[in-house]
Amino acid sequence: MPRAETDGAPASPGLDLDPIDAFPARALRRFAGAVLATGVHACARLDVSQLPDGLVTDGLGRRPLLVTNHRSPLDYCVVVTVCRSGGRWPAMFAREDFFARTPTRLLLRSLALIPAATGRGAPDGLRRAGRLLDQGRVVAIAAEGRLVHAAERPDGLGPLRGGTGRLATQGADVTVLTIVGADDAWPPGRSTPRLRWRHRPTITVRAERMFFDPTATPAQASADVRATMVELVGGGT
């Protein structure tokens, strides 16, 4: 019998935490995608002119992993908006304790969010992501593992967590996708984005496919990803 659910507690190992793909969940994702895209365009100008043509429709590979930076609460909405333009929905990571209560858990599973644990539970989230990649589903991971403030990224990026390197060396088709300017529209620490219709900031999205030597270790793959991310965010930090 599952243990009692409490606010802030991690989800029980016995709970089903995989994304829900029934029709109501798919309908919710379509609705949520439209709402999130509208919200992005309401508070910022989204510049995707530097993305490769056909990136989301057929350029992400067979096991598509999007590796992103994380500067703003708006980043999730931007990734959904970019993927939605190509008819895809990204499975992204969210804090494990968000899944502790039944109503929230059902909502997050319907939005294809993956519980991200730390410590001993971390491999569970990566295994779940690996199964989704095997199905050809787009998985997006914030490589830094958390929202990084400007003072913590002197070269444009914070330290990377180990999950990106592990997924990359397990056969994921990696595309680095960087987001610059989202923290001007929704700075960290604010509960809502700034709404400045006449003077909206520009959010610039850039992307690059990456390929790894089969003998690369997770640490080497992570270092290569970080170097590419720093190059892509350069000039827009």
Report on the structure:
It is a single chain. With 237 residues, this protein is α/β, with parallel strands linked by helices. The protein has a single domain, classed as Glycerol-3-phosphate (1)-acyltransferase (3-Layer(aba) Sandwich), CATH 3.40.1130. The chain is built from 8 helices and 7 strands, in the order αβαβαβαβαβαβαβα. The chain has helices spanning 23-43, 55-58, 75-84, 102-110, 122-134, 163-168, 182-185, 218-233; strands at 45-47, 64-68, 91-95, 113-116, 139-142, 173-180, 202-209. A 7-stranded mixed sheet has the order 1-7-6-2-5-3-4, sandwiched between helices. β3 (91-95), α4 (102-110) and β4 (113-116) form a beta-alpha-beta unit. α1 (23-43) packs across α3.
Secondary structure elements and their pairing?
Elements: H1 23-43, E1 45-47, H2 55-58, E2 64-68, H3 75-84, E3 91-95, H4 102-110, E4 113-116, H5 122-134, E5 139-142, H6 163-168, E6 173-180, H7 182-185, E7 202-209, H8 218-233
Parallel strand pairs: 1-7, 2-5, 2-6, 3-4, 3-5
Antiparallel strand pairs: 6-7
Helix pairs in contact: 1-3
Radius of gyration: 17 Å
Residues in helices, as a percent range: 25-40%
CATH overall fold name: Glycerol-3-phosphate (1)-acyltransferase
Q: What would CATH call the architecture? A: 3-Layer(aba) Sandwich
What portion of the residues fall into strands of 2 or more residues? 15-25%
| Count of all domains | 1
The CATH homology group name: Glycerol-3-phosphate (1)-acyltransferase
Structural class: alpha/beta
* CATH C-level label: Alpha Beta
Q: Characterize the overall form.
A: globular
